[in-house]
Amino acid sequence: MAAPSPTLSPLAAPSTDVDALPIKQLRRAVEDLFEPRPLWYWPDFIASAACFYGGLAMVATTTVGTPFKLAAAIVSVLGLYRAVIFIHELAHFPPGRMRAFRFTWNLVCGVPLLAPDFIYGSHVDHHRRQVYGTAGDGEYLPWGLPGHRVAILAFLLSSLVAMPAAVVRFGLLGPLSWFNQTLREWVAVNASSLVVDMRYRRTPPSPAEARRWRRQEAAVFVYLCAIAAGLLTSVISVGLLALLYLTLSAALFLNGLRTLAAHRYRASGAPLTATQQLLDSINYPHHPFPAELWAPVGLRYHAVHHLFPGIPYHNLPVAHARIGRQLPPGSPYHQTQGQGLLSSLRDLWRAARVEREVAGRGAALRSGDAGG
């Protein structure tokens, strides 16, 4: 028996996807947009990383006034955020594509920030048709259903513990697991994914994947040992490490806000149709500034991305325009447009309030009407 359709009110899709979303027609319209262009990736990433490291150095070493340091800190956070988000592109690259860029990203961001690219390989589950929005989707929680305000706040606060958790993962659990197969399997399944749902369990890696994981784990472990040695010999100050922690936590908090605004999060756990998945995702095509600051590297076109995950970030604006021209104004696609970060966060917060609170307000209004 087929699973019941999840509740997505007031954004419920038609009961069938027939003719609701002409995927084949849309695919033909964007067929030429799937090839990533290195000349987009390299300058963008290098400039972002330079803003991060340059801003961090200015905050750590200059003695100028507070306004300048604050500006440098903001540049550093935004540069770090944009540079790290390229891990999302790496997750969608076919095997062997842009190897030099992947290596450089891990060298500049993945290892120093304790987030090598293998820990985001689980992202592919988020795009599986039968997995999205279900218990198997580690990047989805029903925050948009009543009673989830505490879960939303807990998720945002988790940005403060991400770096300490990564130190334990790569400085302790990873090395110990090299000598114990049982621990190795547990770490691979339970502690090797960037997800929002802590109940998520990752599929164990293949032998080739396990070797790649081990190399990246070893690189992060050596880096952590070097940091520890630097602290013990006073080559690295505790203040610099604290500054890095605050910068990374701020970037993670911003990414948390962006994550909450990427979907409407109203799936109740059953598989969704293609149209329902589209309606649960949000595009932000207008106001590229400041949208590119809080949803960088194509993430402001999240509904387009869920339709065609293989389109590289630099082609998503063109894909959005073409898809819009292919469909009539009343199509589900045109319902994916969001007004902005604050607007989407406000809508999510309202949707997540406790049901009895909503019922109580409704009863109060009815009582007031009767008294009037």
Topology:
Blueprint: H1 23-29, H2 38-61, H3 66-92, H4 99-110, H5 123-126, H6 149-157, H7 162-177, H8 181-190, H9 207-232, H10 238-260, H11 274-279, H12 288-294, H13 302-307, H14 316-326, H15 341-351, H16 355-371
Helix pairs in contact: 2-3, 2-4, 3-4, 3-10, 6-10, 7-8, 7-9
Distance between the termini: 51 Å
Helix percentage range:
55-70%
What does the main sheet amount to? none
Would you tell me the structural class of the helices and strands?
mainly alpha
Number of E-type strands: 0
| Total DSSP helices | 16
Q: Any idea what the shape is?
A: globular
Which stretches of 5+ consecutive residues score pLDDT under 50?
1-19, 362-372
Give helix and strand order, one letter per element, not per position: HHHHHHHHHHHHHHHH
Q: How large is the share of residues in beta strands?
A: under 5%
In angstroms, what is the radius of gyration? 22 Å
Task: Give the count of structural domains.
Answer: 3
- The whole-number mean of residue pLDDT values reads 91
List keywords for this structure.
372 residues; mainly alpha; 58% helix; 0% strand; disordered N terminus
